Structures are given as structure tokens and as C-alpha cells.
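Q: Got a minute? One more chain.
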Amino acid sequence: VGIVIIMIPTVLAMWMLVTMVQFGPELAGLCGLFLGGLGFLTLVNYMMCRHASFFMKIARGEQYSFREALRVEFRSESQTLLPLIFGVIVGIGLLMLVVPGVYVYLMMWPYLWIWADRQTPDRPVDAFPLSQELTKRNLSASLAITLLVFVGSFVGQAEIFTGSFIRLLKAVAYLKMSGQPVGGRRH
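A: Always. Here it is, folded:
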């Protein structure tokens, strides 16, 4: 549904560029690719933030509904650009020599869970140093989670079979690493 919502205005904008502004089809295609990519990144950021909040509720044993996992809230407090920033930092590190990207992932993977836990409501970027501090205190657990995620993404085609398990695993690991209770009553 999200892809369709993104593609309709993108195709409409490309059509308008070609017919009304007289852009060539190649230039209109590049503009459409840019607009579609921007829309897709925004959708992915909203979904990652929503899923982090949803899986935190499950890990804590709080009441939840599956509609919460599918609902997208277009409010500033329900979304952040942290997933995009994290992806760019890890990507640059991987392009440099692989090791810096793996190190950044290892040290900062809990950033989204810290954000979802609302420990950084005023400045979401503070989730990065807080995640690094949390990981340094729990380096062996962080390494184990990173290895499980790595193996899971190659063995089980991550998003299709193991995506939900990995997100729940990360939520539980974050709660344990930060000394918070896990589980409780199931509703």
C-alpha cells in the first residue's frame, strides 16, 4: 500500500514534467526516481520507528494489537530520521574497508530501541552516543546479537522469515542490556 501511495504522485509528477514543463523523458525519469526514492526512504523510516515501538511493547509484555504494527502515524514524535542517518554511517563505513561499518553497527545497533524507549525525546540524535555507551557496557551481548542478526539475514532471508524474530530479539536484548524487565502479563 505504501509503495502505491508513493508511486501515484511520483508518476503524476513525471507526467506533469513531460507534458507541462516540456522536460525530456530522461530528465523526468531522473526526477521521478529521486521523488520515489525520497518517498520510499520516508516510508521505511516511519515503518522502522513504528515497528520498534511495537516490538518494545511485546518484549515488555504490554497490551498490544497487530493493528499497531501496521498503523503509520505521520507525527513528528512517532518518526525520526535516525534509521537513515544510521544507514548512511554504516554504509560509508562498509565502503571504506568493511571493518569500520561492522564496528559502527556493533556499537550503535540499539539506537532505535533507545529512541523507542523515549530516552531521547527532545534530541533524537542523542540515541547514538547512548547506544554506544550501552554497547560498551554489554559488549559480549552486543556481539552475540550482531552475529545472530548476521546469520539470520543470510540463512532465513531476513525480512521474509526472520525479520520479526530479529526485531523482537533486539528489543529483548535492549531491555536486558539496559536493566529493564522483560515480559510480564500477556494480554
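A: The chain has a mean pLDDT of 81.
Q: Perfect, thanks.
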